[in-house]
Amino acid sequence: MADLHTIDDALAALLADITPTAAERVALSDAAGRVLADSVTAQLDVPPYTNSAMDGYALRAADAGQRLDISQRIAAGTPATPLAPGSCARIFTGGEIPPGADCVVMQERVEVDGNVAILPGGIPAGDNVRLQGRDVRQGDVLLNAGERLEAAALGHLAGQGITHVLVRCRPRIALLSTGDEVIDPGTPLKPGQLYNSNRPMLTRLLETFGAEVVSQVSVPDNAERTQALLAQAAEDADVVVSTGGVSVGEEDHVKTALTALGELSLWRLAIRPGKPLALGRLPRRGDGQARFIGLPGNPVSGFVGAWLFLRPLMGELLGCPELASLPCITARAGFSTSTGPRQHYMRVSLVFDAQGAEARAFDDQNSSVLSSCIQANALAVIPPHSQLASGQPVQCLWLAG
Fold this sequence. Notes:
single chain; Molybdenum Cofactor Biosythetic Enzyme, Chain A; Molybdopterin biosynthesis moeA protein, domain 3; 6-stranded mixed sheet; elongated; metal-binding; MoaB/Mog-like_dom_sf; molybdopterin molybdotransferase activity; EC 2.10.1.1
């Protein structure tokens, strides 16, 4: 099978000469899942002042084990005054440590007699105290360019009082579904027809990978219409993704249309599922090109191809290393298999136990069995011309969005 390309060949062709998308400033409230275009520097210490980690009494560690007057009450948000000698302060979680105090005793360990606290001994300096700048110091890099803004990162930014951030524009995707037999849900099926499962599946995956699907087009089995719709899609998108139409059948017009309009960079891979994959470029009016990925029509091939190719492409376009490659986990195989000349990506479920991770494969690995992808959380990578026995180590790509 010398005419088939490796996955490394495909990724090299797909990711060559990538320029990240432009940047835009968005409100922090709209930035969930977006990718930072520039690093963010801390403008404030976090916490901004030394404060108590719990409800209790603030004192000098040297005064532990004594009876001390309670000289002030400090709630969170209330300014503290210097601690009077021979006294302690009633303090609540988040309250500012008064100057002169260096520890906090939790209230459960303190007896109170009127306005006097009877304190235990042996309290070390720094106990239950959160120092100013413990988390972040002013001038530190808060978040690096290329980081995705998920829950903790959004909280980190909000803790600096930040309201807007500079993020990469979402790559614009035109999603084309080919074939007269593929129809939208809601339309009665006629003999020989099937519902379009690829469109909602790929739309959701692309959105998870940080892209925006700007158009969804059905392409008939007609050479002229295929070419016209491909050209139109390239005008509005950074990436054109098609499903079906890239094999060798008489009604597979996508590869021919791509060659006529632009450039076919690579076709047919030595992988299973997903052999009839096509990569290329489509010209736009004026300057620039749209990248093209032609996925097979079988839904499992589209699912696997999205993780192997669309995700790293979105990672490069967004300048996001987290998306550029899937995390790899070594598991023990809970199945046995053998491969021919193509590298196999098997849908598996990773189950973790005291011995590590076990990869449990779905019985039916046919490329039309989409149900095998519902519970799959990894792809077990089986090299060409291999035999894998149950219990042997196997490399698995973790399907992390």
